[in-house]
Amino acid sequence: MIIAANFKTNHTRKSTKAYLGKLNSFVAELKSDDTVLVFPPSSALDNFDLTDNISVGVQNAYPTEKGSFTGEIGLEQIEEFGLTTILIGHSERRHVLGESQDEVAKKYDFYKSCGFQIVYCIGEPKEVREEGIESVIAYNFSQLEGIDISYENLIVAYEPVWAIGTGLTASNEQIEETLALLNEKIKAPLLYGGSVKVANTKEILDIPNCEGILVGTASWDVDAFCEMVEISKKQ
Ligand code: PEP
Q1: Which atom of ligand 1 is nearest to the CA of 6?
Q2: Which numbered atom of ligand 1 lies nearest the CA of 219?
Q3: CB-CB neighbours of 202 under 10 Å
Q4: Which residues of 99-135 are buried (b: 16+ CB within 10 A; e: fewer)?
Q5: Pairing of strands 2-6, 212-215
């Protein structure tokens, strides 16, 4: 299983260090061999001494080694900390910050060429979900345009936009049906994300074709995230 935490614009440098220290001890003591990924804000990136199955990744980066892209970070700033994991295509970047599929695909190509592990997010808005499963799949597949889905270091996170940060989780039937159809095309591990919390972690991880979870809000509390890692180990 893959258990991932997206801090978004939460946690400081100091609190990220404390969080990772606690998570690291917990995972080591639990002897979990699941893959645990943590995406802190870029201001909190550092060299962290972590057990092998925990990786820190970046929530976003510009497709460049370095250059004049005010407000962005590139490969040089990520490599300083030896990090090789990136989140690309998150719905907040697509729908709040207006990143186009073309920009997402350029980012994907660049970090793929650098050999990064990429957690690539797809997911439909509410109006598309309301049109039915055919529209849902067509929309999600359109977010794979320009993306090499045969890339060996790819993880795909299915995150319906209407379920992110809203407290609304897709039903288990909706997740199961969608993951089964996505799995016909995508051979990379599939995660589910969208208001996952401790209380629904087990049932979501039990869904066929679900190889893990990408957690936003509920992951900001280290104790809750540790509980999710523990539930995953018992799967
Ligand atoms: C996310 O940010 O990827 C996410 C799924 O957020 P939340 O868990 O808050 O819905």
Answers
A1: 2
A2: 8
A3: 13
A4: beeebbbebbebbbebebbbbbbbbbeeebbeeeeee
A5: parallel
Q: How far is the CA of 111 from the centre of ligand 1 (A)?
A: 23
Lookup: tokens for 162: 């209407």
* pLDDT, mean of residues 111-122: 98
pLDDT of residue 220: 98
What's the pLDDT at 165? 84
Q: What is the CATH number of the domain that holds 172?
A: 3.20.20.70
Please state the atom number of ligand 1 nearest to the C-alpha of residue 166: 10
pLDDT of 235 above 90:
no
165 lines ligand 1 (CB under 6 A): yes
Q: Is residue 21 predicted with pLDDT exceeding 90?
A: yes
pTM, rounded to two decimals: 0.97
Give the chain's domain count. 1
Question: Residue 169: which domain range?
Answer: 2-233
- How confident is the model over 50-62, as a mean pLDDT? 97
With a 6 Å cutoff on the Cβ, whether 6 touches ligand 1 is: yes
Round to whole Å and give the CA distance between 67 and 53: 32
What residue owns the CA closest to ligand 1's atom 6? Answer: 216
Q: How many CB atoms lie under 10 A from the CB of residue 74?
A: 16
| Residue of 59, 156, 192, 215 best suited for mutating to test ligand 1, as the one with most atoms within 8 Å of CB | 215
